[in-house]
Amino acid sequence: MYKLSVYMCLLILSTGMHAQPTNTRLDSPEILSDNSVIFRIKAPGASTVQVVGTWAKDFKPVPMVKNDSSMYEVKIGPLASDMYEYRFILDGVPMLDPNNNAVTRDGSIIENRLLVPGPLGDLFAVQDVPHGNVTAVWYQSPTLGSQRKMHVYTPPGYEQGKAKYPVMYLLHGGGGDEEGWLSRGRANYILDNLIAAKQAVPMIVVITNGNPETVAAPLDRPINKASKETPGIGGMATQKFEQSLVNDVIPFIEKNYRVIADADHRAITGFSMGGYQTQNITNNNPTMFKYIGVMSMGLFSSFRNAPNTDYNKDKHVAQLKALVAAKPKYYWIGIGKSDFLFETVTNLRALYDEVGLKYTYRETEGSHTWKEWRLYLSELAPKFFK
Question: Which domains does the chain have, with CATH numbers?
Answer without folding.
Answer: 6-115 (2.60.40.10), 133-383 (3.40.50.1820)
